[in-house]
Amino acid sequence: MIRLSPSSKIKYSVGEIQNYLNNDVYHIRSIFFDVCYFINCPLTLIIAFSGLYMELGVNAFYGVVILVVVFPVNYALTKISTRLEDKLLKIKDERLKLINDVLSGMRVLKLYAWEESMEQLIAKLRKRELYVLRQVFLMDAGINVSFQLAPLVATLISFYGYTVIQGNPLRPDVAFVSLLFFGMLRLSIYMLPRLLTDSIKAWVSSRRLVEFLNAEEMQPSHILRETRDPALPIVSLRDCSFSWTGVNVTDPNLQLKNISLEVQPGELIGIVGRVGSGKSSLLSAILGEMERMEDKGEAIVRAKSIGYVPQQPWIQNKTLRGNVLFDSPFNESKYTSVINACSMGEDLKLLQAGDFTEIGEKGINLSGGQKARVALARAVYMDAELYVLDDTLSAVDAHVGAAIFANVIGEKGLLANKTRLWALNSLAFLQYCTRIVVMDKGEIYDVGTLRQLSDQKEGPFADLIREFMEKKLESQRSKKSSTLEVTLDDEEDSELSEVLGQLSGSPLSESLLERRRILEQQLASSENQQPKEMVKAEESKAKPSETRVSHQSSHQSMHQQGGVSVISDNAYAGDRPEWTEVIGRLTKDEELATGIVSRRVYLVYCRSFGIFLAIIYFFFTFFGVSTSEALSSVWLAKWSSAAINNTADSLSHLLIYGGFNLISIISSAICSIVVAVGAYNASTYFHGKLVSSLFHSPMAFFDQTPMGRIMNRLSYDIARIDENIPWATSYAMSVFAEALNSLIAICVVIPVLVFVVVPLLTIFLGIIHFYNVASVHFRRLTSKAVSSNCSFFQDSHTGADSIRVFNVVERFRDKNVYICDFMNESLITEIYTNRWLQSRLDFISDCAIFICVFVAIIMADYKWISLGVLAMFTGYLGQIARVWRESEVQMVCIERVSEYINNEREPEWNTIDESRNWPPSGAGHLQFKDVCLRYRNELDLVLNNVSFDVRAGEKVGIVGRTGAGKSSLTLALFRIVDPCSGKILINGIDISTLGLHDLRSTLTIIPQDPVLFCGTLRLNLDPFDDYTDASLWEALEKAHLAETIREIEGGLDYKVAESGANLSVGQRQLVCMARAVLRQKTCILVLDEATAAIDPETDSRIQLSIRSHFKECTVLTIAHRLNTIIDYDRVLVMDAGKVAEFDSPNALLKDSDSLFFKLAKQAGISQNEREEI
């Protein structure tokens, strides 16, 4: 799985591979448990036919002929069943693929109130799956009935030949011994449908697994890796073409063409271009992550080790220190140096348990900037020869980015002597790059120094610089016309001046300076506006504490250097302190039930199956099947008694005997149909309830529960409910009914055997109870191990590219072997307990046979009856033990699914009263009144008495250091987490009185991390089908993505790969922008650094689109860069969970004591500008 090529990774989604892991492997594993039956059944058939031949002579072969005739019919049914099973697994793949996407994007789903839409999509796939499953059940029922009918017909024809044709009397010794052999024949043939069904599943699964295991893997030949030679380029590409799909395609997102590039040791190579131009693809090609199209030219990387920082950081579910070390040995001084250089000192101060704080899956309890710095620290710590950095600094604050560049990437940083390939959207750092690679439409357009590239007045690079300049000057004009009395040359404008200085004297510089003069003249003519009144909140020293909020200990010592926190050498050194075990823990351990499965679980399944159907099933099983078989045995006894007295009419007795058996078979067919219908009901109920419960679960549940654990419930456990439990429980009821009939027959025919049966039953039940407790516990351990394996698989699949680049594939394989060994230990122990049980049952059976023979000697008149009936009863005891055990262990799946069905639920989705003025028309008036919020009861407040008032239509920027409470404001507004006190009002309505969907449907957020779902682009934009194609294209136009979509095959029906893998991160962000544009009822728009992964030109256009399209909305922008909100109406400064300041940017910058002023100073606003203000 880790070695899959890009084309294979697109073909096989996480959900599909999860299905292979949980279901296909299970089918193949199960068939090995049936190997003994493949040997036992033929031997039993041979013994049974031999015995019948000894008793009935040549008449026994009439039955053989019938069985031979039946097999072609079953072969045809088997072929149909195989096709249905293959179809079923493919639909299951689709469902699990969608569910995996939905769970991965659950936070976005809740923010957009899309749960119902996605639940309906899953329900449609599930309905298709269950329709095929019901066909499989009915086909299995047909196979089962045919195999039951065969021995009956064989028995009737054999008795007909023996009695009617040959005229032999059917004596009791012949009748019951033959019946015993026919019983052996029937039990063996009864196993054949199960073996056939299991074989079909194993065959289909093996074909699927073989296809997957033969899928194309990453080929070392794509990029030749050699040891470093200082005299040769460290990267050498000549006339190479690469593809994500392995074939030539028209989609520019999926291929690179005619790539030629040489990188010398120690160079810092900047890679620039517009969104979707191929920057990240070029880096992936160098890493060997893309497939080389033609075997010409050369592609060589001369580096023993490579450090990789992807654009979307891969964070494991372990401690922060564990993520940085990545299983490398801990070196205290080296670790401290890396932490300081990556500006993580302040983060360690804020995290509850420092670097021992557990980080959730995909870094859910870290901000985007924190995740980026953790990934960077991991790469730096490994001390590689070549570093590949994909837009590393886009998610961090400007001053932090500058510090990281200086301390890590720049000429005086930790990587100063390393070769660095750096794709970036911000052009401010280009002046420090040795050379610059310009990408355009999947090709290298140009390579050169900044000075060399500036000799061209036109082209992609000139366009980027021009748009970069115009964006900054346009930003100044906006500031001038809105809130600022003077022009603010902010941090990025200062960087622009430096860039223009580097271009001085070039043809491009002359063109840019002329354009700048025109824009500045427009700026000078702008009218000043009066600054708004400053409202400064009382400062506080509250200590917020979510997992990324302050916890200081005696082990920690912090100091500041250059505005960036640094951790001292002795901070958190050595082993994990004991207090961190509790404080830093996020993920909950999977709970295990104890003892046997609760009878309540059986009752829940019975209700889902259908009480009426269960009664019908038991009626036909007991009276239709078992009683008919018992009556056929009684009638056979009567027939044989009459035969001794020569008073028997063989033909009439045979017809009545056949009639009883025919009733049994018809009843069995009815029972099979009832099982198919009831299983459909149960499968619909449990899957529907589980999905509904997950969608209604609070976000905290997903933060604390690994996704692999949830997926295990939706794949492995649901599959057992679909396929195993119906037949396990129905077979158990059948065996119980037959055993009960046998017991009744014993009590009626030979009452004295009751004194034998009762003690045996008592011992039997005691053994079974003791065995079931152990067996169920081991099955729970196995299921827990499967969940751990699923979580590890999810984590490994997400970070497969990083695992390959860091060359730790073998390490992860060893970890997987360890987890599988633990899983197999539980499974093997479970098998050992089965053998323990079987040996005890064999002993009980031997005792029963001994007593039966003894009784037969004393009571000669009943010897054949006693032998036959008691032998069958002891056989049923063995079957009861097996089916009882199987039902108990399979019910563990119901127990596990029910645990999640009973999850804590969110408040109601819809509670709107038509008399209330909701949804609001126009912009929203937002008020926070004394809001306090904590993430869990045991944690401290993250918002402490927060109060502010945002007027309708106002544009407000939200700033503050990491952990100040910015994201917590958003979570409170969307009610992802409800405040523990205080109120949030929109247009005077307390949002706690609104349904979650009623609230969220009027709010819109564009998150920092874009989330796309597997399916069409249309689905990702409009999952409810509320809008016309024209509206969708209009939204794409406003998001500046329409041109790209028109160029690719499919347009709106373009298939988006899992997690949007076939789109660049910037393009995914633009899709999220288009989503926001489509939401027409928006009263409040929240932006969370929504354009960080976008080039300056597109960013400029997007900002204009936001200002024009959302001009009637209230806008809240969580800003990592001050220039994005400097022209807003007001700025809300958060500090330590409280409102520190709330006023216009101009007013706050005039106050040298304000926190915003200090943030501006750290961001690089010049001293002259502050004095001027």
Keywords:
38 helices; 25 strands; Rossmann fold; ABC transporter transmembrane region fold; six-stranded mixed β-sheet; 1173 residues; 11% strand
Structure characterization notes:
GO terms for molecular function: ABC-type transporter activity; ATP binding; ATP hydrolysis activity. Its main location: membrane. Belongs to the ABC transporter superfamily. ABCC family. Conjugate transporter (TC 3.A.1.208) subfamily. Residues 523-562 are annotated as: Disordered. Keywords: ATP-binding, Membrane, Nucleotide-binding, Repeat, Transmembrane, Transmembrane helix, Transport. Mean pLDDT is 79; it is low at 479-492, 526-574, 577-582 and 1166-1173. The two termini are 59 Å apart. Helix 32 (1029-1038) packs across helix 34. The protein has a six-stranded mixed β-sheet, with helices on both faces. It has a six-stranded mixed β-sheet with strand order 19-22-23-16-24-25. 57% of the residues lie in helices and 11% in strands. The chain has four domains: 6-216 and 591-901, ABC transporter type 1, transmembrane domain (ABC transporter transmembrane region fold); 220-466, P-loop containing nucleotide triphosphate hydrolases (Rossmann fold), CATH 3.40.50; 471-524, no CATH class; 915-1002 and 1114-1173, Rossmann fold, CATH 3.40.50. The radius of gyration is 37 Å and the shape is elongated. The protein is built from 38 helices and 25 strands. It has 1173 residues and is α/β, with parallel strands linked by helices.
